[in-house]
Design a protein that fits this description.
Hypothetical Protein Pfu-838710-001, 8-stranded antiparallel beta barrel, 22% helix
Length: 283
C-alpha cells in the first residue's frame, strides 16, 4: 500500500533521532530469541566461508527482527565467539580521489569493486579485502590477513591488491569508516549464511552519522535459491530485496553533495522505516 505522507529528507530524520556512538552497544536492537539458537564456532563456520557467492540484502526496522527469526532454530545455528553472539565490526573503505569505485556502483557498472579493511573486534583479527561484483551477479571476495586495521594509504598491502584489482593501488585513499554490530546465522544443511547488522554508524574525519533503528539482513548463498526457511519467512511478510551498499549509503550521508540520484529510492525507504512506517506502508 502506498503511503501518502511525504517523507522527510533523510539527513533531517537522522538529525532528530540519531543517538551517540556509545549507544551502539551489544544487545541494542537484537531479538531475544537468538539465545535459543545452537552455537557454531568461528572455526566450524569457515566451511561456509562463501568467498564466491550471491548476496541478497533486505532492509527492515530492528523491532521486526524477533518475528523474522523466531522459530528458525531448527534450520540455522548462530556464530558464537568469546561467549557472545553479537559481534562488533569496524571497516575502513578505500577509493580513488575522484571516488571511482563509488561512481561505478552509482552508474550500475556490471563489473565493479569495493576495497576495504575490516577488523573483527572480539577476535582481534583484521583483513584487507577486495570484493568484486561480476557481470553475472556473483560476489567474489579475496582477502589478506593484516596486522591491524588499515586506516592510512601506507598500510595498504599493495602487492596483494595488484593481484586482484585491475587498477593501481597507489592512488587509493581512505574515504569512509563504519561501525556496526552483527549476528551471523549458518544454515545447517545448505550453503547459506545470513548476517544481520544493526546500530550502524558512519564516520568520516570528525563527523559521525548513526543510522538508528535499521537492520540490514543479507543472505549469502553459494548457489542462489529462495527455497530456504529465511527466504520463505521474508516472503511471507512481503519483505522484498533491496539494492544496498553500506559504502555508498555512508558516502551519500557524509557527503550529500556528491551525485546520488540513483540512491534516492534507498534514502526514501530508510526515512520511512526510521519514521516508524511499517514495511507494508512503504510499498
Amino acid at each position: 500500500m502506498q503511503c501518502n505522507t511525504p517523507a522527510l529528507p533523510i539527513r533531517q530524520v537522522l538529525s532528530t533521532v540519531a543517538p551517540s556512538i556509545q549507544d551502539a552497544r551489544p544487545g541494542r536492537g537484537y531479538p531475544e530469541s537468538i539465545a535459543s539458537f545452537e552455537p557454531i564456532s568461528l572455526t566450524a563456520m569457515q566451511s561456509t566461508a562463501l568467498m564466491s557467492r550471491t548476496d541478497t540484502k533486505f532492509l527492515v526496522h530492528e523491532t521486526t527482527l524477533e518475528s523474522i527469526i523466531e522459530g528458525l532454530e531448527s534450520a540455522y545455528r548462530i556464530l558464537e565467539h568469546d561467549d557472545t553472539r553479537l559481534q562488533p565490526y569496524h571497516t575502513v573503505y578505500f577509493d580513488s580521489p575522484d571516488l571511482q569505485l563509488y561512481h561505478d556502483h552509482h552508474r550500475g557498472k556490471a563489473n565493479r569493486f569495493k576495497i576495504r579493511s575490516r577488523m573483527y573486534i572480539r577476535s582481534g583479527l583484521s583483513m584487507f579485502e577486495v570484493k568484486q561484483r561480476t557481470p553475472h551477479g556473483k560476489t567474489v571476495k579475496r582477502r589478506l590477513q593484516t596486522a591491524s586495521l588499515a586506516m592510512h594509504p601506507e598500510q595498504i598491502p599493495r602487492g596483494f591488491v595488484r593481484q586482484v584489482y585491475p587498477a593501481s593501488p597507489d592512488k587509493l585513499l581512505p574515504t569512509l569508516m563504519n561501525r556496526y554490530w552483527r549476528m551471523t546465522l549458518v544454515h545447517r544443511e545448505q550453503q547459506e549464511r545470513v548476517t544481520i547488522d544493526v546500530n550502524l554508524a558512519f564516520l568520516q574525519r570528525s563527523r559521525m552519522i548513526p543510522v538508528p533503528g535499521i537492520a540490514i539482513i543479507e543472505i549469502k548463498q553459494g548457489s542462489p535459491t529462495r527455497d530456504t526457511q529465511l527466504w520463505k519467512r521474508l516472503k511471507s511478510r512481503s519483505i522484498t530485496p533491496t539494492s544496498l551498499s553500506k559504502y555508498c549509503l555512508g558516502l551519500t550521508l557524509c557527503r550529500p553533495w556528491i551525485r546520488h540520484n540513483n540512491f534516492k529510492p534507498l534514502h526514501h525507504k530508510l526515512t520511512r522505516l526510521m519514521q516508524g512506517d511499517s514495511y507494508e506502508r512503504i510499498h
